[in-house]
Amino acid sequence: MTTVFKDTIAAISTAPGPAGIAILRLSGPDSLAIADSVVRCSGPPPSQRAGGTFLHGRVVHGEEEIDEAVVLIFRAPHSYTREDVVEIQGHGGQAAAQRILQTVLAVGARPADPGEFTRRAFLNGRIDLVQAEAVADLIRARSDRAAAAAVEQLEGRLSTQLNALYDHLMAAVADLEASLDFEEGELPPSVLTQTDAQLAAAEEEIQLLLATWQEGHLLRDGARVVIAGQPNVGKSTLMNRLLGRDRSIVTHLPGTTRDTIEESLILGGIPMRLIDTAGLRDTSCLVEQQGVTRASISIDQADLVLYLIDASQPVSVEAHTTLSRLAPKTTLLVQSKVDLVKEIPEPPDHRYEIVTCSASSEDGVKSVRDALFARLGQMDTPPHAVISERHRTLLQLAQACMVEARQLASEDEALLVPAADLLRSALDHLGSITGRTYTSELLDAIFSRFCIGK
Amino acid sequence: MNYDIIIVGAGHAGCEAALAAARMGMQTALITMQPDKAANMPCNPSIGGIAKSHLVFELDALGGEMARNTDMTGIQFRVLNTRKGPAVQANRAQCDKQAYNSRMCAVLANTRHLEIIKGNVVDIDIQDSAVTAVIMKDGQHIPAKSVVICAGTSLRGSIHIGEETTPGGGGDLPAANQLGLNLHSRGFRTARLKTGTPPRLHKDSIDYDRLVIQPGVEPPPFFSCTVKKLSPMFHVEHPPTDADLLSMFHVEHRNPRVDHTQTRCAGSTPNNQQPTTNSQAVSSDLDVERWMLDVGCSHFPPELMPWQPGGDQMPCHLGHTTEETHRIIRENLNRSSLYGGQISGTGVRYCPSVEDKIVKFPDKPQHHVFVEPEGRSTDLVYPNGISNSLPRDVQREMVRSIPGLEEAVIVEWAYAIEYDFVDPTQLTHTLESKSIEGLFLAGQVNGTTGYEEAAAQGFMAGVNAALKVQGEAPFVLRRDEAYIGVLIDDLVTKGTDEPYRMFTSRAEHRLLLRQDNARFRLWEHAVRLGIVDSELVVETERFASDIEREKQRIETTRHGGSTLLHALRQRGMTYAALEGRQADLDPVVAEQVEIWARYAGYIEREQKEVAKRRGMEDVAIPDGIDYRAIDPLRLEAREKLDRIRPETLGQALRIPGITPADISVLMVIVGRRGTTTESTEDVRVASTNGMRT
User: Fold this and answer.
1) How many C-beta neighbours within 10 Å does residue B679 have?
2) B361 to chain A: which residues are within 8 Å by CB?
């Protein structure tokens, strides 16, 4: 059997959404070595263990412990892909799985493309003939979807930024390559000094793009939706209704919820983190004070606040003051307990979108669900371009190449070739995002910039 | 007479093809319309330059003639890119145009198994999709097992000077219109390309005081191992006596052979064909193979060594155009063939005509003009940089607006040439036609430009034609082995829509493909082909082991607290200046050790890259896949794959317009064909695993 693939891929194999465990899968020649460097366990390291066994250990990133995990060892060819495969079953759910992914990427794995494990499975002869046919169609479908997504992105802002970055880097590379491929007399003398400035500018652009990764959490982890309000306005009841189960303890006593409670929820396909908070009030109870402080922090970090006011009670001055500090753009004003009143009172402030709810029945929270869905649907489009996990990895690789290339180029003219080769790798990484290829564009770039040739 | 191989055309591709095939023992005929114009240089008589020089070194390492011919007839030698590291360093030599041509004629005329036939090939004979003969203008068929067409720019060539258009093949050679039309009718896709050349000036009509002199380099940097090996002899204080020479070489081994030129030609040529008609044919006791292939010999016939190689170099001179030059060109643009509408073919971007430079870069106030000699015994000089297709009166006015050329006498007019080239994606990596077995195409006919690019293809086509006749496996160089590999893979995979010239940036692994290590990286191939002189092969092997030994020594030997390797790594350090060096180490070995010390880390990284890519490169795509029937492929991908018929997945990925998603689908097909047996157990497990990704 020939192993075609020399690199090792990684992906979270479990579906997104709340779950007790999440599985990260590694496949490729370095799987076991990567496992060795991220898993601490008693007894022999993963690479010293037999295929078909598992071990219990801790996943670490450097010194930092990330998760407790069960690690399954599959040795080639007895694995799904017929390569060495390691599965890391984390106990911390999705967020921890993301961090495990980051960790294995940092030590040499590459994020898997859609369908890539299966592609390896059949290329390595794992899947029989009939299945191979089916998989070809599957890949076709996947790549078409990917193509559609790529087109969407191409029209989008991220793409504009990435293409601008690519162009700037390409211009610098064209200058550098021209200085290698043509005699000195044929080029303007300033070529190489310009190159360094161009590279510095491109590095800054990469930095800006990388910064958007944090802000891309809406797409990756879901929006943070915080349920807030005075004590005993029905926050926990609403939380349980939205989750469809009793998660928060509900009593008629004000101040029952003293800590923030956080749960994942997917509503109409939109992922979110739903956070129930302690009722906001001045209190002498130290524990409740802590809860109130946490609630305030949660509100500050929220992408959307569901601010509850009790429709059966007059709105307190305190409640009014809190409300007025919330931005209408990121707030839904929820009048709760409307089943207790004959006539819904006039809302205290008309700048906010208002929904009513009666959390005592399933139907009573429908309007809240609808409003949430509508709001988050709009929010799903982030305020500016953000990059995905894959983009981030590729941008970081490109950045590392550029930093080293600049250093070599400035160190010694005799190192211009290795520098140019690094920049070529940087362009290859960026090209994996934008779908552009280096070789077809380089000569065009050179000849559009210089009058070269005798 | 039955030939194994017939070469059509005696340009730089044809000469290398003919010599390679004959030297591999094939009965070879080289058919040309003008035998005395072999290896003619219709443009600048210069060989080498950045990336082109790499091709020449590789040819020399494999057994080509171009490097030796250049070294023996060069009148100025230079090294380019000296400060930018060994990977892009390049030699360039200005040759004596006439000597280059006549020396090549002498080599051809005195090569065993090679016959030169004067004639005009107009067609090829094909039976069962295989070539069987070439057809001459008079209708005669000359049979051969393989045919290599090296038609250069002659296929339907037309020469443009201003509004005037005349048929011609360039460099005063006739056009080959019938062959061009017949190839087209045999189903070859062809298109038009354009190139051009500047006027030639009389050397005595130039005011050299107004130009900047550019001398050659001493000692002259040679291309060929042969001349490098000989050169220490040239640099003795006094001219060597015969006794010196005799003691230097192993004359006792020399074994003068009987005249085989005459026995070979007598009665062995076909009817109506003139036997070898080389006007410069050399004395018949000259054993060229012995001379060329065994460096040891006692005398140097002037036909093969017209002067001491590298001796008495001639300078070039540098001038520049002026605003006035540009005004003249601008005002007469509509009278140029290029801008007047006569020319439709695509030109060369990196070797633009002066009209193109003025139009495309209007802000540049002046352009370089290099005044370069065409030879020792000619009155012509070549003003490099003012190639054009302007009418004669404008050419004269334009030339005379250049400082130093005010009184210049134009001896030959500048012209543009338009010609047919054959889309090279119709060829395999051996340069054999995909549709007609035994038919090879090489050189400028494949859409390239440059003598070096042509020679490289000619050599590879000649070698592969020979291997085919011998029933041996083909000889293909990978992209990570040689620029020749990059050149041919680019041509047959991507095709070209402008004259293709080699650049270092076309190669993925420049640090590995240096001109200094050509003989080492291609050594095993040279052994296989058996063309290179065995003495040189042994020398290369010896150098290689010396290099390894010295690497180990400097890694482990300490001097003044650090290893010699550490000391040699310091910037600006050379082996010659290294304390603790081996004084008697051959400079070739020292050079390799020095480069290794400096670049080892980068070279290792490059080798890892190569290994990574090798995965895809090594997955062969089986023959006979019906791409049109693979539904999951996009229509565009189906068409392109069907047309190019890539040989590996790596090549498929390089086809313009083929996406990684297409490759995924292709992998299924290849993987499926690759797995013939599956145990039932595996199938069962696979199905339970389902399609999860």
Assistant:
1) 9
2) 451
φ/ψ (deg, to 5) at B79: -120, 130
Q: Which of A6, A13, A447 sits opposite B612 (nearest CB)?
A: A6
Q: For A116, what's the count of Cα atoms within 13 Å in the CB-facing half-sphere?
A: 21
Which of A81-95, A136-150, B524-538 has the largest mean confidence? Answer: B524-538
Rounded to the nearest 5°, which phi and psi values hold at A33?
-65, -40
Residue B116 has pLDDT above 70, yes or no: yes
- CB < 8 Å from A in window 408-447 of B: none
A149 at the B interface (CB within 8 A)? no
Distances (CA, A) of A310 to A17, A223, B77, B217: 32, 25, 94, 94
CA–CA dist A304, A273 (Å, integer): 10
Q: What is the pLDDT of residues A255-311, one digit of tens each?
A: 677 677 888 777 765 667 888 888 877 777 777 778 788 888 888 888 899 999 998
pLDDT at B550 over 70: yes
Q: Which residue has the tokens 């093949």?
A: B169
Q: What domains are defined for chain A?
A: 9-149 (3.30.1360.120), 156-215+387-449 (1.20.120.430), 220-379 (3.40.50.300)
pLDDT tens digit sequence for B50-104: 999 999 999 999 999 999 999 999 999 999 999 899 999 999 999 999 999 999 9
Q: Are B395 and B414 in contact (CB under 8 A)?
A: yes
B664 interfacial to chain A (CB closer than 8 Å): yes
Reported for B563-571, long-range contacts at CB under 8 A and 24+ positions apart, including other chains, are B565/B597, B568/B593, B568/B594, B568/B597, B568/B598, B569/B597, B569/B598, B571/A412
Chain B residue with minimum CA distance to A118: B693
Task: Point out which residues pair with B320 in neighbouring strands.
Answer: B368
Do A418 and B602 lie within an 8 Å CB cutoff?
yes
Q: What is the pLDDT of residues A315-353, one digit of tens each?
A: 888 888 888 889 888 899 999 988 888 888 888 888 899
A183 pLDDT higher than 70: yes
- Cα separation, A135 vs A138, in Å, equals 5
Q: Which of B385, B619, B691 sits opposite A118 (nearest CB)?
A: B691
CB-CB under 8 Å, B606 with A421:
yes
User: What number does CATH give the domain B197-215+313-418?
Assistant: 2.40.30.260
CB contact (8 A) between residue A453 and residue B351: yes
Say whether B351 and A416 touch across the interface (CB within 8 A).
no
Residue B91 is predicted with a pLDDT of 97
Whether omega for the bond prior to residue A77 falls within 30 degrees of 0, making it cis, is yes
Dihedral sign of CA atoms B478, B480, B481, B482 in order: positive
Instruction: Name chain A contacts of B385, Cβ cutoff 8 Å.
Output: 454
- For every residue of B376-411, DSSP letters joined together read SS-SEEEEET------HHHHHHHHHTSTT-TTPPEE
Contact B87 A417 (CB under 8 A): yes
Residues in chain B: 693
Give me the residue spans of the domains in chain B.
197-215+313-418, 533-616, 627-689
**pLDDT confidence bin for A386, thresholds 50/70/90:** low
pLDDT number for residue B411: 95
pLDDT digits (tens, 9 = 90+) for B293-331: 444 444 567 888 889 899 899 999 999 999 999 999 999
Tell me: domain B533-616, CATH 3.90.79.10, correct?
A: no
Residues 242 to 261 of B: which have CB under 8 A from any A CB? none
- Looking at domain B627-689, which of 1.20.140.10, 3.40.50.12780, 3.40.1010.10, 1.10.150.570 is its CATH number? 1.10.150.570
pLDDT digits (tens, 9 = 90+) for B9-31: 999 999 999 999 999 999 999 99
Give A-chain residues touching B664 at CB under 8 angstroms.
Answer: 115, 119, 139, 143
- In 3D, which of B444, B439, B442, B451 has the Cα closest to residue B421? B444
